[in-house]
Prior knowledge:
The structure is a single chain. This protein is α+β, with helices and mostly antiparallel strands and 670 residues long. Among the domains are: 129-141 and 161-170 and 226-282, no CATH class; 290-447, Regulator of chromosome condensation 1/beta-lactamase-inhibitor protein II (Methylamine Dehydrogenase, Chain H, 7 Propeller), CATH 2.130.10.30; 472-666, Vaccinia Virus protein VP39 (Rossmann fold). It is globular and about 75 Å long. It holds the Pfam family WD40_RLD. This is RCC1-like domain-containing protein.
Amino acid sequence: MNGEGDEMDENGKDVERKEKAVLMWGYLPGVSPQRSPLLSPAEVSMPESAAGDSWRDVCGGGCGFAMAVSESGKLYTWGSTDDMGQSYVAAGKHEEIPEAFPLPNEATIVRAAAGWAHCVAVTAQGEVYTWGWKECVPSGKSIGDQSMGESSEKDEKQSSLLNDQVSPRSHVSGTKSHASGTSIGTVSSQESSKIGEESIKRRRVSSAKQVPESSSSGDEALSAPPCLVTLNSGVRITAVAAGGRHTLALSDAGQVWGWGYGGEGQLGLGSRVRMVSSPHPVPCVESAAHGKDKSAAPTKANANSDGQIFTVIGRRVKAITCGGRHSAVITDTGAILTFGWGLYGQCGQGSTDDELSPTCVPSLLGVKIEGIAAGLWHTVCISADGDVYSFGGNQFGQLGTGSDQAETIPRLLEAQCLEEKKAKVVSCGARHSAIITEDGGAYCWGWNKYGQGTFLIIGYCYHGSGGSHLESVSRTEGVSCTAEVQRAIPVLKKAYGDSMRKVLHVGPETCAVVSNLWKEVDTEAWGVEPYDLEDADSSCKSLVRKGIVRVADIKFPLPYRPKSFSLVVVSDALDYLSPKYLNKTLPDLARVSADGLVIFTGYPGQPRAKISELSKFGRPAKLRSASWWVRYFFQTGLEENETAMKKFEQAATKKSYKPRCQIFHLSSYS
């Protein structure tokens, strides 16, 4: 949004001067009281220390924080709080007032981007700095380290190891591997295509897949300070994009570089490379020499069945974007190439297969694309004519098609409000999308639980149900998430239907939950009590004698067979487990569930009810942020159950139910 002012030119005449303003709304926990979302636009002011400076551009944001660049080349971040887990590790510990992020004084930032828990920035000299989650940060020099640079010998060794870092499920056709390490050997695209489709598309893994225990020492152990990314000599970066756990960078020569996690092909290297620890070129456009009469270099997607070239893809890449686990680029001729996770059709290839190499989107070959953006499961692009196309997941209407049906090929948006409008800028959050039109209008659609719905929201956060209702929680009385389960039973029944027929509850005071569930029609219930029951009443002791309720330490495997229960509900107890034990307990809970797992957990800074203070685990409760939990689910291979989440939210709205705890809906292991 532009504001107008007056200034004089060298001849003394008035000239119009436009100053850029930054507006924000949606979920930024450190900006508003009690972390409630901003439901209407609020202007972001420059800090007093930046007198004379002004905004240059917004850079989006990560989980719970926002970023923007000033005209002087400073990178400002805000919106995080001291108890928001890894978000502040990536963004800086401050709240509603923007602060300059501590990068080298000589670094003049011109571009920046944020993923789930890592950030990347480009300087005016074409250098790249990155920081945040360690696995997203490539080999490089941490600021303050005097031993600058890496030898070419090391780079060569890293390059030779690239194909050694493939996923364990990549090298055996049609089988699942439960190995904890990576496999040695290369995988061709042809071999990869033979792997069973379901094992490729679904990221669900066995209960044996766990986060390495080395990652259990807290947020600081998982984070890395800003480092200068080491690139080949002469490479000058002009743009960057950050995904869930991967990063792309675009050079002034039109070459794409990538690093980070590539298990679904989001690095475009032709195989399921689990981790690339140094920047590697992404083969988006053929680099082989062509005759002088060739105006452009074709890629493998250009040839028809006769091997004849029927269109031109381009010579170089001019724009890049990263989604949660997929990537997309635009070439200089306006063609789109996509690669990565394809479960929801977000690669636009007409299927739900993963794309391990950059592949042209064939249905848009006749359209010149100018802009592109990607969300968690969807992609949106705009043409030179101002038309908007979208494809991928659509659970929350993020495609703007008027339904919640996924689209595996690009679909032209024909909304009445966009008639006679030309889109100029496009942006995507996790589950919402937005454009700015030629006349300065902003249009947004998709998930609106936190009032985000626009390009001008700087930060976005992945949340379970109930995140926007923290303002209703009393700060003076303790909150028991087990009591919250009892309040939520009618909503759970509505959302899960037949899946409530056989329920296991895990948590303190489970006898009360189980007793209430037995009162429901067509529902049977069992419980696991992680605390001693010395003071339990006679009815609770009766449930224990009957074997309906067990007293057990949930740090150890549960004595149930796989899929013994249709639904597992856990409350409070997980807050006392370190990541080391969460690595074992959560997969075990998912193992015994057939239809899903529902987690009720407290908010950071929320006082606990008395029962929750009686920890059996020898440590105080650690109340983690929603962004921490979502990253943890991703890292352990647990998937959020979007269908159940949506049904729960709809039922909660109808029943005027406002949760006092964070609620996450997870899929069981398949």
